[in-house]
């Protein structure tokens, strides 16, 4: 899907064959084996991957995910999207992504730590503050980053805080990093509603996914006065016409492990929840959930993509024909995380700390600028928002590659 999107944009930009090939293919694809002794004494070998798409504009930046379905092709696609995301936001990074094919829900904390540390050791020749800087993703968190930081710093012989972002505050993490992606999704949803003339206080929203991104998307939308009527996670889905108390639901999930059983809303089929009437639909869980099959049934005004790749090309074709859904594509919508990761990296290099207000204000300024650039480019060239966002990004990378030339 990522390659198909790239080819369409490269055709629009009329990239020559040399630039097309150089922009499309990743610089490095790394796969390692991770033997881990489990708590019961047994040993299992996991596979870990890291793809570094380009280092043309700076070190690569991107998350590390723990998930049983992780494989190299998925990681490569996510690295490509991260590359365009960094270029669109004008951050001095290339795109990277990593993953280990394990299920953290079935692993103890000690087993997760051993996987993390072994993966980090295997990656040490290929990472560094000026080479590759990782961050949390699906199935990982700030504790994972703390283990990575400790492993790398122990190897280096001194603390290297800039080796990862999304780490704990007392290990030189950044204020605002945990909520950054979800906050950015909600902020851009509000900007889209503003463009459509919909008042926030009268707006409604549906959020698919209640992990870090979905939680903070819902919390921020609620703080704007938006009624969050639908929320789902892997355990089930909830619906309330009056709106769901997001903080109470968060407390319930912390106690029970999922949204199912919450008494402040009714149960609903997760697939049907996506198709309920709302002003904002925010898929913030996994990829390819908006398809050619359900796209004709969506009843939202704004589709803001908190997840990576939640909408298939077939669904995009449906939206172009419909013309009544304002799409904020993933490469823009969920860029809050990497943007605040950039802020964290800068603070680490400078040994300086910003306040949360400074971080979120700078984040909103950058998101607003990128949002306006995408809309103006789309209008000028008659493009869908996704194509416009990716065209701006790919054009930026292609120009830098052309300027630097090709080493013989």
Automatic annotation (TrEMBL):
Name of this chain's protein: Glutamate dehydrogenase
Organism annotation: Haloferula helveola
Keyword Oxidoreductase: yes
Transmembrane stretches, start-end: none
Keyword match Disulfide bond: no
Similarity comment text for this entry: Belongs to the Glu/Leu/Phe/Val dehydrogenases family.
Keywords: Oxidoreductase
Boundaries of every Glutamate/phenylalanine/leucine/valine/L-tryptophan dehydrogenase C-terminal domain copy: 174-405
Cross-referenced CDD domains: NAD_bind_1_Glu_DH
InterPro entries: Aminoacid_DH-like_N_sf (IPR046346), Glu/Leu/Phe/Val/Trp_DH (IPR006095), Glu/Leu/Phe/Val/Trp_DH_C (IPR006096), Glu/Leu/Phe/Val/Trp_DH_dimer (IPR006097), Glu/Leu/Phe/Val_DH_AS (IPR033524), Glu_DH (IPR014362), NAD(P)-bd_dom_sf (IPR036291), NAD_bind_Glu_DH (IPR033922)
Top-level taxon of the source organism: Bacteria
